[in-house]
Design a protein that fits this description.
Length: 826
């Protein structure tokens, strides 16, 4: 006024200083209420607004946001004003609106080593570290007062994961500003201008060097603005030079961390080796990768082991390129496959030298410009992540494969080279390893197994002849198996007689096979009776098969009680089957636990079933795990059942997707159910058509349901034809519906006849009558009801009354209810 400046600013209280005032907080002391943190500079009109009639529109959080925003603006202005030569205030930045919160921050973006991408999972399960509470407390304090929290440790010790998890616990709602290499100055300016609570995230602090390094004045300024800084750094940067820079190749360089920065930091040091409590927690997880890391890592470096796998895998795969390191890649591939074949210990250099040639030749050999062998071994031994390397040196010039490579290998691994099986067999150090190699070959490359057994037989291993014969039988070569047995075994050899019986059975010479089984038993092998029971069961002589299995069980034959349980269950003798499975378990056949648990569940003994199935799951029985999930679903323990289904899905069990879909459907989650059924289809499970079609029909999505129901009909799914007819009928496609009902009736579904009868016209009267009569003869109460009503209305009361009595005798509650409402024609 009159060219004189007027002071229009007033000091306002965010929380009123006196009781009864606006936003007063009785938990605050008088000193706190009148302290700087509770004061806000406003113009006089706005001071009146926030304390006036509309005071309720202005919360404590909003007013504190105003204070924080303009404090950041002023701090930024005064920091930049001397250089800028300007007194114009910068506008608050809106860039913070795109920042994630700590709770939303993607772990790999925070610097956490990724998981195996080809497995569809990003990270292993987090195992709580001993430092979690301490780091979370430090971050909570920094969130309130500002300051630097530093997490220091060796490479891949778990620094970033620890920082990420602790910050999620302490500051989940803070916005995160990441600082890329060369972008620290910009990141600091951004957080100073941010009006919301935020954190400056400096993963791998050592990448910020030179003018981009973190300075003590940066830490002090951010502390004044109550902005927390979270940084990770390698321990090699401790201790930092205290007063002056050092020289590197003649140039003066600043250290990553100055003593002045360290003096302002709250630092935690994360050890590479996990403590005993941490290892115990790791062993208790559900993540098989973590348990494997605990078993295989050296000196407790679990985090290093988990991080090494994906990194080493990528390095190895990249080495195959032209001009890369193809010889080294072939060496690693041979080491991987020798481990897969069954060799566990250090691998001699000459073995890897021989074996790698197979893979190098298959990959193109000279076209890849392979490097010399010595250079390849040196490259494969280079440390990559912490102490890990692709091939690790061992005693006597041998090499150990980094086990992390096997843990994360894709499920669809390339086949092991056929010749490598012979290398593995020849290098096996003991009989146990030898038999492991042959067993793995039987699973991975069965056509080569007889040759491996033959090598062992020719090397003097007498028992190899039985393995060779059995392998030939499994390959569908029973005549060859008989030739081997005749040439290399004696007539009085009980095992030879048993395998002779199996070969004769495959040839369809069942009488001779039965005789050989009796001979095996007479020579002292009770397993011959088990084989005899299988032959008798195939011939339909079930009582004799049952008696043979009981004799075998009493004689101590392996699997006799188990096989008896299977036979009894198939015959509908549930309680005797349960007793047989119990005896199998008591005899040490723990494979029977899954079957026992399933039958207990079927008979309503769900609590005992759960106990039995959990024991089977602990022993690695995946079938039992699926049955356990079903039991939990029946007990309405939905979350537990869902977790088990999802774990089975992670292990590649597509059936669990069907069960998961059923669980979602039962809990009124139709979208999730549909996703699960479709995922089962994509996983190659044709039966999912039936479940998906039924689910879509239940939602009255008839058009979508029809193609899936057609697939289900083609697969012979019970009831699918009836559902297809109903869906087509709802779509108004009467002729197509009649065809579906007709086909269902002809396939033996009596309800198909009822559906056809409801749609048939006069020209189809004879076929209608025939299909309904077939359904009545099959005992269908629905068909009886239709025919009864028609007889009653056509003047045949006696025949109608006879059908009424039959319907009543059936005891079907739904049809009986309809019958009770029907009034006969007088």
């Amino acid at each position: 006024m009159d060219d004189e400046p007027v002071l229009d600013g007033e000091i306002a209280h965010i929380r009123a200083s006196r009781p009864g005032g606006k936003r007063h907080d009785p938990g605050w002391t008088r000193e706190q209420l009148n302290g700087f943190g509770n004061l806000l500079l406003l113009c006089a009109p706005h001071h009146k607004v926030i304390d006036g009639r509309k005071a309720d529109n202005y919360s404590v959080a909003e007013l504190e946001g105003w204070k924080h925003e303009y404090a950041a603006v002023m701090n930024d202005f005064w920091r930049r004003a001397p250089d800028a030569g300007s007194t114009q205030l910068p506008a608050p930045s809106a860039a913070w609106r795109s920042w994630p919160t700590v709770a939303e921050l993607d772990p790999p973006a925070a610097g956490v080593h990724p998981g195996w991408p080809h497995r569809g999972d990003v990270l292993p399960q987090y195992v709580p570290r001993d430092l979690d509470p301490q780091l979370a407390d430090l971050l909570a304090q920094a969130g309130a007062r500002g300051g630097l929290v530093l997490v220091a440790g060796d490479t891949a010790s778990g620094k970033s994961r620890l920082a990420h998890e602790a910050s999620r616990r302490a500051l989940p709602d803070h916005l995160v500003r990441l600082a890329p290499r060369g972008g620290l100055r910009e990141a600091i300016a951004a957080v100073l201008r941010c009006p919301k609570p935020c954190i400056l995230w400096l993963d791998y602090l050592e990448r910020h060097t030179g003018s981009d390094r973190l300075r003590s004045q940066d830490v002090a300024e951010l502390r004044r603005c109550r902005i927390p800084i979270l940084a990770t750094v390698h321990t090699r940067h401790f201790p930092a030079p205290a007063t002056h820079p050092h020289r590197d190749n003649g140039r003066t360089t600043e250290p990553v961390l100055s003593q002045a920065v360290l003096d302002q930091a709250a630092t935690v040091f994360l050890a590479r080796s996990w403590s005993a409590p941490e290892l115990a927690r790791a062993r208790a997880t559900d993540d098989p990768r973590i348990r494997s890391a605990v078993d295989n890592c050296t000196h407790g470096g679990v985090s290093e082991f988990l991080a090494a796998g994906p990194a080493l895998w990528a390095t190895w795969q990249a080495a195959w390129r032209i001009g890369g390191n193809p010889t080294a890649a072939a060496l690693v591939r041979s080491a991987v496959d020798l481990r897969r074949a069954g060799l566990q210990g250090p691998m001699p250099t000459d073995l890897l030298t021989r074996a790698h040639r197979y893979y190098l030749a298959d990959a193109g050999a000279d076209l890849l410009r392979p490097e010399p062998l010595d250079a390849a071994f040196s490259w494969a031994r280079e440390s990559r992540i912490g102490m890990t390397s692709l091939l690790q040196p061992a005693a006597d010039g041998a090499h150990l494969l980094c086990p992390a490579l096997l843990d994360g290998a894709p499920r669809s691994e390339p086949a092991i080279h056929p010749l490598l099986w012979f290398e593995a067999l020849g290098s096996a150090p003991d009989l146990t390893t030898t038999l492991t190699v042959v067993s793995n070959a039987e699973r991975e490359h069965p056509s080569i197994t007889p040759w491996l057994w033959r090598c062992l037989r020719e090397a003097g291993l007498t028992r190899a002849v039985w393995g060779e014969a059995f392998a030939l039988i499994r390959q569908g070569r029973p005549e060859d198996a008989l030739d081997v047995l005749r040439e290399h075994t004696e007539r009085h050899d009980p095992l030879a007689r048993r395998f002779t019986a199996l070969a004769l059975k495959e040839l369809g010479r069942l009488d001779e096979a039965q005789a050989a089984c009796h001979e095996a038993h007479a020579l002292g092998n009770p397993d011959g009776l088990v084989d005899l029971a299988q032959i008798l069961a195939e011939r339909g002589r079930l009582d004799e098969a049952e008696n043979a299995l009981r004799r075998a069980a009493r004689a101590g034959a392996a699997n006799a009680w188990f096989n008896l349980g299977v036979l009894l269950a198939d015959r509908g003798k549930t309680r005797p089957a349960i007793r047989a499975y119990r005896k199998a378990v008591a005899a040490g056949d723990l494979d029977a636990l899954g079957n026992l648990g399933g039958l207990l569940a079927d008979t309503g003994q769900t609590h005992e079933a759960e106990t039995v199935l959990r024991r089977a799951v602990e022993l690695g029985n995946r079938e039992a795990e699926l049955e356990l999930a079903n039991v939990l679903k029946y007990l309405h323990r939905t979350d537990e059942a869902q977790q088990l289904y999802e774990r089975l899905i992670d292990h590649g069990d597509a059936r669990a997707r069907i069960n998961l879909g059923n669980l979602h459907a039962a809990n009124d989650r139709p979208e999730q159910a549909e996703q699960a059924y479709r995922a089962a289809l994509e996983a190659g499970l044709p039966v999912a058509h039936e479940y998906l079609g039924r689910h879509l029909a239940g939602q009255e999505r008839w058009h979508d349901a029809v193609p899936h129901l057609r697939h289900a009909v083609e697969q012979g799914a019970p009831g699918a034809g009836l559902r297809l007819g109903h869906a087509l009928q709802q779509e108004g496609r009467t002729e197509a519906a009649k065809d579906a009902y007709r086909d269902a009736a002809r396939a033996g579904d009596p309800l198909g006849a009822v559906g056809f009868a409801c749609l048939a016209d006069e020209t189809e009267a004879d076929e209608r009558r025939l299909l309904l009569q077939q359904a009545v003869d099959a005992g269908s109460p629905d068909a009886m009801l239709v025919v009864m009503v028609e007889l009653d209305h056509s003047g045949h009361p006696r025949e109608a009354e006879a059908l009424r009595r039959r319907i009543t005798a059936c005891g079907d509650p739904l049809v009986s209810g309809l019958l009770a409402t029907y009034a006969p024609v007088s």
